[in-house]
């Protein structure tokens, strides 16, 4: 599987070591971005992305699936970065870009 970084942690002089919290990243993906995540068996920092909840015109939401079934994209949260693992290089790169755009749009709207 090929790994594509979504966000990388920059080391500053003030904090020599700051790591991403797996729980906080997963909560943000589930609660704020609406992704459906399932833990990967045997890995504490990896989650399958099985779909996304999308709001429709009526005000309800429904689950949308992704290409090649539920076990194609994998969210990986490391200490210094988090990103997407997938079987295809271009698909993973595009998915990482889509998630990055969604994250920045959500963070801009929260300000």
Put the structure in a nutshell:
With 111 residues, the chain is an alpha+beta fold.
How does this model look, in words?
- The protein has 111 residues and is α+β, with helices and mostly antiparallel strands.
- It has one domain (2-8, 19-110).
- 30% of the residues lie in helices and 33% in strands.
- It is built from 2 helices and 6 strands, in the order βαβββββα.
- The chain has helices at 22-32, 89-110; strands at residues 2-8, 35-39, 46-55, 61-64, 73-77, 81-86.
- Strands 1, 2, 3, 4, 5 and 6 form a 6-stranded antiparallel beta sheet that branches.
- It is globular and about 45 Å long.
Write down the oligomeric state: single chain
Low-confidence stretches: none
Report the major sheet: 6 strands, antiparallel
Structural class, by secondary structure, is: alpha+beta
Question: How much β-strand is present in the residues?
Answer: 25-35%
* Strand tally: 6
The averaged pLDDT comes out at: 82
Number of separate structural domains: 1
